[in-house]
Structures are given as structure tokens and as C-alpha cells.
Design brief:
globular, about 475 residues, alpha+beta
Length: about 475
């Protein structure tokens, strides 16, 4: 998931892959000629480890083209050792180590795995069940809460429930590498931070950074909290929250904003609903000290920038780059615009990625608010659920191929190319348990990026006198897996 500027996962990958790994046949005259010329090339005299180093500087389609030059290079580029390094380069060490750990560190077919991740088209959904032998305690149904994967645990905090009431509880469930284990939730604290919904909570290393939110009196918050999970032999799991010292300069109070963490111990927030119900369009960055004892907020002011909105998503795609998508705008219209933000070398810049819904199969359903957008294996965003302008909730899954988006330094005029973004969006098939249509749920991915956890949200219910809109809150925890054959 790192070094995204160097990645190239074009549609030619599948064709190259099939051509290079079809059943052996007698070489043609052209192939024989190519092999002969390759044997006389100075490249053949380069040591294999040096060739590996050179190949790792190339995009994937160039590596596969290189494989077609002769038998020696074809064998070299079919090496799973090389492809493990390519996976490390493109996905990052956390994803690769997590995949290895979940497969007992056995030798894996990395070339095949890379191909499958590049072209996956479906997800498989499971309902995670509670351990029947454990005490039957569960988080109550809720929406606009936070859900994070940290220290091999799911951590859930706060949210809103029936009657517009806020919640102030914190729950932890240990997951480890066995995501199909029977679930055991543990409630570990309440009352601090104060109850709220529409807040954000992001992860830096193994630390949670929580900001803002709204309580059931309609009061907006602008406090920043630090949370850390610990495991004890006798006490089980604990989570300690403390208020972060940030000084006098802090973002205005808000809820229903978007946030994510980027490299360099920083968190970015954008938009939301401020005092008197006004939607905001500002962007702020929090810089944290090395020991997470203090933080400094500062505002980013650039033009152009995304217009005011709430209920949108902001997701880090590696390094200092983030992607903003969707939300509800000033006129209550639900949006589908896509923005890139890069905070590099002290020169932050927003850039809109232009695309037309009619050029995307099923694209008319893309505008949404209250969805989730999570970085998954392969450097893509998995968009789940949400609702449209008519409050019709969704249960669809879309993948946004952010590897097709060039560096933010590219001229803006190039970012509206129909050809470049024709396959940027893809709607996925859903297998297994079909989730309820929902909005304002929360989702997070495990260390590998292959498994997504999704909890809660507002779902459609039976019409009842107490619920004239047929609204109810969900307490279901789902595991969403990328369909791969490892």
C-alpha cells in the first residue's frame, strides 16, 4: 500500500500473465530468434540479485514485458521470491507479513496472489457470531460510532442509538489472525470520553486518536483524545483514554466530519457540521509529539478545495496522500465528487479528480453519504453502503482503483481523461450473507487489508408508530473478505 506513485496495475496484466504461463509448446522461429538475441545481450551477464533490483524499479506491466524477451528472463520473472518483493513494494510489509502469518508462514504463490488481488471482482460476507460459552454481552445497536482495528483487536466507541441518545461506552474484541473465531466482546470503560456520535477515530501505530462529535443535546465537540489498548494476564484487555493537550489553536467544534491519519504522526480532518448546523469546508492537520503527550493543530488553506459537506470519507492511500469522497453538501444534495490531498514537503494541495457517472457501469448509484471507504489489499478503496438524496440506503460494494490516479503533481487537465479513468470504479459481486442496506455504519480493515469488519449503522425497519420513518439501528458485526485463492 506504499510507494503508490510507482505502481501500475493495468488491464494488460491478465493478458501478459496468461501468455507467460500457458502450457509449454514448441518455440516458433520468432521465439527462437528472440532467445538467441537475448543470449548475446549484456543483460544476461548481470547477476540475478542485481536484475531483481532493476526489476523492482519497474511497474508491473514492464516487468511482464521484460519476461517475454527470452527463456532466462521468463524464468526469472516467474520467481515467487521476486513477486514477494513486488508485493512488499506495492502493498507494504504489514500486509505481506499478515498474509504470511495467517497461512502459517508457509511458502506462498506470490505471483498468483498478486494477479488475483489485481483482478478480484467479488467479496464474501459472513456474520460473526458470539461465543455461546461467554457471558452474553454485546454492544447495543448504534450508528455514527467509531470502529478501529488496533493491536489485533476491534475497538468500538460511542455512537447514537434509538431516541437520538448518545453512547459513551468502549468495547474491545480480540481477533488475532483467526477472523472466523467465535466473538467475545468486552466492555472496558464508560464515561470518558464523554458520550457522542459523529466523531472520528483514527489509528497511528497502536494508538487511537479521537476527535469531535455531537452529544444528544446537539452540542458539538472539538476535543482530542488518545486511547491505547493493553493486554494483561489477569485483567484481560484494558483501554486507557486521556485528553490530548493541544493548546489554544484547535478546529471549530463539529461532528459528521471526516478524518484519517497520514505518515509522520499526523491526522487530517475535513468538513462536518459545526455550530448552528452549518456545514463546514475547512481542512486541519494535527501533528503529534513522539510520545503522544501533546499535539499541534494548524489549518490548511488552499484553492481549489472541496466544498462544504458532512457524512463523507477521507482515507489515507499511503504516505501523505488522502482521498475524499462523497457526502452531503450545502444544498442537502448527496455528492459523488472525488478529491486528492497531498501534504508533502509543506506544500499541501487539493486536486479534484473529474469523472462522469455515465461512463461507469451502474455509476448512477455512486453518489452517497454515510458510507465507509477503507484502504484494502492492493492499494484500493472499498466503498460500502451509505444512502442517496432520497435516504434510500445501500448494501453495495464498490472498489475505487486509486492506483490509476497519477501523482498529484500531474497537470490537472490530465485528471479528467475519460480513457484514464474508464475503469477507475468497479462494482463488486457479493457472496455469502447479504448484508442489510445501511448508512452511517463503520468499517475497518485488518493488518493484511484482505479482511474488512463492518458494524452497526441505520437500516430500514418495519414501520412502527415510534418510528415513522421505518428506521432502526443495527448491531450486526460482519466480516467482508476479498475472494482470493491462496
Amino acid at each position: 500500500m506504499n510507494n503508490l506513485h510507482n505502481k501500475s496495475m493495468k488491464s494488460s496484466f491478465g493478458a501478459h500473465f496468461q501468455n507467460n504461463h500457458s502450457k509449454k509448446k514448441q518455440p516458433t522461429m520468432a521465439e527462437a530468434s528472440t532467445s538467441s538475441s537475448c543470449n548475446g545481450s549484456p543483460l544476461t551477464q548481470i547477476a540475478q540479485d542485481h536484475l531483481f533490483t532493476i526489476l523492482l524499479l519497474l511497474p508491473v506491466d514492464s516487468i511482464l514485458s521484460f519476461a517475454m524477451t527470452c527463456k532466462k528472463f521468463r524464468a526469472l520473472t516467474a520467481s515467487d521470491t521476486l513477486w514477494e518483493y513486488i508485493c512488499l513494494r506495492d502493498w507494504g510489509p504489514k500486509s505481506v507479513e499478515a498474509i504470511k502469518a495467517s497461512n502459517s508462514n508457509q511458502q506462498l504463490p506470490w505471483m498468483r496472489i498478486y494477479k488475483q488481488v489485481s483482478g478480484f471482482d467479488s467479496v464474501y460476507c459472513h456474520r460473526l457470531c458470539a461465543d455461546p460459552d461467554a457471558e452474553l454481552v454485546f454492544p447495543t445497536p448504534r450508528a455514527s460510532h467509531s470502529l478501529n482495528f488496533v493491536s489485533d483487536c476491534l475497538v468500538l466507541f460511542g455512537g447514537g442509538c434509538e431516541g437520538g441518545r448518545h453512547l459513551d461506552d468502549t468495547w474491545v474484541a480480540y481477533m488475532g489472525n483467526d477472523f472466523h473465531r467465535l466473538l467475545k466482546w468486552q466492555r472496558i470503560s464508560s464515561g470518558s470520553p464523554s458520550g457522542r456520535f459523529g466523531h472520528t477515530c483514527a489509528v497511528i501505530d497502536d494508538v487511537l486518536i479521537l476527535f469531535g462529535g455531537i452529544n444528544d443535546n446537539g452540542n458539538r465537540q472539538n476535543d482530542t483524545w488518545v486511547g491505547q489498548v493493553a493486554c494483561h494476564d489477569t485483567l484481560g484487555f484494558t483501554l486507557s483514554w486521556r485528553l490530548l493537550v493541544v493548546g489554544d489553536n484547535a478546529p471549530p467544534q463539529r461532528g459528521a466530519h471526516a478524518a484519517c491519519c497520514i505518515e509522520g504522526r499526523k491526522m487530517v480532518i475535513h468538513g462536518g457540521i459545526g455550530r448552528f448546523g452549518v456545514r463546514l469546508s475547512d481542512t486541519w492537520v494535527l501533528e503529534l509529539s513522539e510520545n503522544f503527550q501533546t499535539g499541534t493543530w494548524y489549518e490548511i488553506v488552499t484553492q481549489p478545495s472541496p466544498p462544504a459537506r458532512s457524512g463523507h470519507t477521507l482515507t489515507c492511500i499511503g504516505g501523505t496522500r488522502t482521498v475524499l469522497f462523497g457526502g452531503r453538501g450545502l444544498g442537502y444534495d448527496v455528492l459523488h465528487d472525488l478529491w486528492l490531498l497531498d501534504i508533502c514537503e509543506g506544500h499541501p494541495q487539493w486536486l479534484q479528480v473529474l469523472y462522469e457517472l455515465q461512463n461507469i457501469p451502474g455509476g448512477v448509484s455512486l453518489p452517497r453519504v454515510g458510507h465507509s471507504a477503507t484502504l484494502i489489499l492492493g492499494g484500493r478503496l472499498l466503498i460500502c453502503g451509505g444512502e442517496d438524496s432520497y435516504r434510500h440506503r445501500k448494501n453495495d460494494f464498490w472498489v475505487l482503483d486509486i492506483t490509476a490516479v497519477p501523482s498529484i503533481t500531474v497537470q490537472p487537465s490530465m485528471l479528467s481523461s475519460v480513457q484514464l479513468f474508464a475503469k477507475m470504479w468497479k462494482r463488486l459481486k457479493t457472496k455469502g450473507h447479504i448484508p442489510n442496506c445501511r448508512s452511517f455504519h463503520r468499517a475497518c480493515a485488518d493488518q493484511s487489508g484482505r479482511c474488512l469488519f463492518m458494524f452497526g449503522g441505520m437500516v430500514d425497519g418495519l414501520l412502527q408508530p415510534a418510528e415513522p420513518a421505518g428506521l432502526r439501528f443495527d448491531g450486526e458485526l460482519l466480516l467482508v473478505e476479498l475472494v482470493l485463492q491462496l
